[in-house]
Amino acid sequence: MNVLWVFAHPEPRSLGGALRDDAIRALEHEGHSVAQSDLYAMEWDPVVGAADYGHDPQERFRVGPVSAAALERGTVSEDVRAEQEKLKSADALVVQFPLWWYSVPAILKGWFDRVFLKDFAYGIEDPQHPGRTLRYGDGNLAGRRALVVTTAGGRAPALGPRGLNGDIAELLFPLLHGTLFYVGMEVLPPVVVPGANRVSGGEFRAAAAELRERVLSIPTGTPLAYRTQNGGAYDDDLVLRDRHAPGRAGLGVHLQDPDDVS
Q: Nearest CA to 149 among 226, 218, 89?
C-alpha cells in the first residue's frame, strides 16, 4: 500500500508528531510505502493566487476555470504539481492535524484549496447524468481510501452528541463528507484523540496502539456509509428522498441506515 501522510502541526515533537512517527514506523515495518507532506516543515503556502497558474494578473481571476486551464496546459505551480503527483501515486491518504477553532489549521485548508483543483479533484462531468459532475462517492480520486487523524483539547464526553463542544462526527463532516468523500474517496471513521493537552503516558500508549491498528487496517476497514450522489437516494435537486431517513433532518441523514441499501 502506498500512503500519502499529510501532517499539519507546527511542532514535530507534539503529541501529534509522536503519534505520526510511531504509526509510520508500523506501516513501513509491514512493507508499506509512506510519502509525507509535513506542511509546516515544507513552509507550504496556503494562499490561492493567480501566480499558481501563470495567470495574467490584469485579467479577472476566476479560480475554477483558470486553474483547470492551467492544469490542461501544464502551467500549474511546481509545488502544487508535486502534491498532485503524490496523490496520484497513493492508495490511501492520511490527513492529520490538531482541531483548532472547530476546524483544520489554515495551512491544511490551503493545501486542499491549492491541490484539489478543478478537473483534478472535482468538476468531472458525469456522462450518465447530464448537468451533474462526478462527486460524493465518485470522481477522479475514487479508488483511494482516506483516514483523518485529529487531536482535540476537549475531553471525550464534551465531543459527544450532547457535549458542549459539539458532536465530533458533525464537526468533522465538512472534511470527511464535504471534501474527501466529495472527490470520490472511501472515507474511514476518523481517529480522534481527545484531551490532547493532558494525555498521560498510559493514554499515549493506548492512542498510539489504536492509531497503529487503524493505519494497518486501512485496506480492509469498513468506510463510513455515506450515500452517493448518483445512487438514487437524492432527487434532481440533490435533496434526500422522503423514503430515506423519514422524519429526520441534519447531517446524519447522509449516512445510510443499516437496513438501507441506497
A: 218
